[in-house]
Amino acid sequence: MGQNRLESLLQLRSCEVQLTLSGSNLSWTFQKRRFCWGREGPSVSIPVNEIVAVHQGDRKEQSKTIDAPSNRFTVYHISRKSAQQWILEVSTFTAHSCQEAYDWVTVLQDRIHSNGAERPRKLLIFINPYGGRGKAARIYSKKICPLFQLAGIEQDVIETKRANHARDYIMETDLWKYDGVVCVGGDGMFSELLHGVVRRAQMESKVCEKKEGATLTPCKLRIGIIPAGSTDCVCFATVGINDPVTSALHIIIGDTQPMDVCASYHSGELMRYSVSLIGYGFFGDVLRESETMRFLGPFRYDLSGFKMVLSNRSYSGTVEFLEADDDRSSPRDNTRCRTGCQVCSESSERRKEESDAESHCCDSEIWQKISGSFVAINVTGMSSACPKSQDGLSPTAHLADGTADLILVRECNMFQFLRHLKRHTNKKDQFALPYVEVHRIRAMRFTPEKLDEEKATCRRKDFFSSICGMPPETSSWNCDGEILDCAQLSVRVHHQLIQLFARGIEGTSCSR
User: Fold this and answer.
1) Confidence of residue 352 (pLDDT cuts 50, 70, 90)
2) Residue 129 predicted with pLDDT over 90
3) Helix (H, G, I), strand (E, B) or coil at 226
4) pLDDT per position as a tens digit, 160-207
5) Domain limits for position 329
6) In a domain, 501, yes or no
7) How many independent structural domains does the chain possess?
8) Which residues form a coiled coil (predicted)?
């Protein structure tokens, strides 16, 4: 038995298999006498870094905590139920002796620790008791906690009592003993962790984050998301599915996905951080309108969205933006951000070379300017995909390339805007419309303009204004589900500011 390669003839579910550990892969092949119609039986191969745990004995022996040696050992590993959904699979092997079983367990455990990413040993976990319509605590206790225990991960669990409880706790508590922070909840809960982790990193680095020109320090503490919300947009766009077990398995094996963060500023002062949507016009109005219908639960977004479509509001202003200087990707190409994305990895190298130039911020750059009346102005740092919109607002947006996509929907009639919204769900190009344009940007600023008297009069006389209410002169911004009560706003993308327990969506980069 060499150090790099280990082989044994063992039993698996009463079948004889040849178990082989070679490099970073564990595989087993069913012997041909079991499958006499071919030269050899089927084979199974799994990467060592997708093994969750290895224990001597079978499940029953482990649950009884018997100290007596066993000639069995159990491998708990990841299996793919679908393209993105992961499940835990259990394979128990029977060796010829207790010593052989012990040797396999020892070698596999050593190989797990020497291969792949750094796995978390201790996590700080926040549970939103109202997440998932009150199911978050049950999801954690029934599905997630047993997995973390199996993997030997220590857990400090806090059930949040109020809004921003998690954010404040992260800011005030000594975090040196934790390898990551995890939220069990929805996008709102993730936003709390985002703000806490980013602000904590700036505080420790003595960076004044509140000023627009500040160069922020990347965060070392990883963030995990166990989806238990109504949309789970962040989880869906970074893992490809909003399944709690899949997300837990990504956390256990230590997957790491860097991620850009957009910072929103008003009059040069920091307002909020976000990773998905910063929306003015339609999405801002939908969020504000939905606040009056909270008693309806998630249905309030559908109802307020229908109301805003009927009202067909548009807002005047000037959008200025600094377009990304990378000609290797664009919002209209066919390249999707997937695991090991080349666009994101190359952006890291390019950013290092341009760090001196970027330290002067964007003032020396040439800004493009577009003025007009807009139904919606959206900035998204990711695809913003969700179960209702598999492609999201911008299907080819990248998670970690230092850019965001700016989507402008100019003034149009209700049916034209509905056509644009429909294309978010039917796989058609939502940008291939004359009143829609998209730009890949590094920064953006918006200045609202007042309506002239003629347009104001037309609004008052509009039929739907009497039904849906008189529209305000300016909209508000929807920043990852939080309302920003200001119309004037600037946005700056901070390259790979945070790290998630994820690996991006598995699959091909081109899907159109």
Assistant:
1) low
2) no
3) strand
4) 999 999 999 999 999 999 999 999 998 999 999 999 999 999 999 999
5) 264-351+365-495
6) no
7) 3
8) none
Residue 508 lies in a domain: no
CB-neighbour burial class of residue 466 (10 A; exposed 0-12, middle 13-18, buried 19+): exposed
User: Residue 91 — φ and ψ, nearest 5°?
Assistant: -125, 120
Name residues whose C-beta falls within 8 Å of residue 49's C-beta, 6 or more positions apart in sequence: 24, 112, 115, 116, 117, 253, 254
For range 458-464, the mean pLDDT: 54
Q: What is the mean pLDDT of residues 382-396?
A: 89
Residues 320 and 461 placed together within one structural domain of the fold: yes
How far is Cα 135 from Cα 322, in angstroms, rounded to an integer? 43
- DSSP conformational letter for 230: S
Cα 129 to Cα 132, 134, 228: the distances in Å are 9, 6, 10
In a domain, 180, yes or no: yes
Packing angle, helices 165-172 and 187-205, rounded to 10: 20
Place of tokens 């996905």: 257
Per-residue pLDDT at 47 exceeds 60? yes
* Helices 299-311 and 414-422, packing angle to 10 deg: 140
Q: Average pLDDT for residues 4-31, to the nearest whole number?
A: 92
Is residue 345 within a helix (H) or strand (E), and if so which, with residue range? helix 342-353
What pLDDT is stored for residue 34 in this prediction?
A: 46
Beta carbons within 8 Å of 386's beta carbon, 6+ residues apart? 231, 232, 233, 236, 237, 242, 392
Taking residues 255-279, what's their average pLDDT? Answer: 96
Shared domain for 107 and 204, answered yes or no, is no
382, 239 Cβ separation under 8 angstroms: no
- The amino acid sitting at 510 is C
Asked if residue 16 is part of any domain, the answer here is: yes
pLDDT at position 512 is: 42
* β pairing state of 122-127 and 180-185: parallel
Instruction: Report CA-CA distances (Å) from 467 to 308, 421, 460, 462.
Output: 11, 22, 11, 10
Is 194 in contact with 261 (CB distance < 8 Å)? Answer: yes
Nearest to 86 by CA among 395, 503, 382: 503
End-to-end CA distance of the chain: 48
The Cα 288–Cα 291 span in angstroms is 5
Question: Which amino acids are annotated catalytic?
Answer: 187
* CATH assignment at residue 233: 3.40.50.10330
Average pLDDT over the chain, rounded to whole? 88
Other residues' Cβ atoms within 10 Å of the Cβ of residue 320: 16
pTM summary value = 0.90
CA 356 → CA 28, 202, 350, 394, distances in Å?
Answer: 52, 20, 12, 30
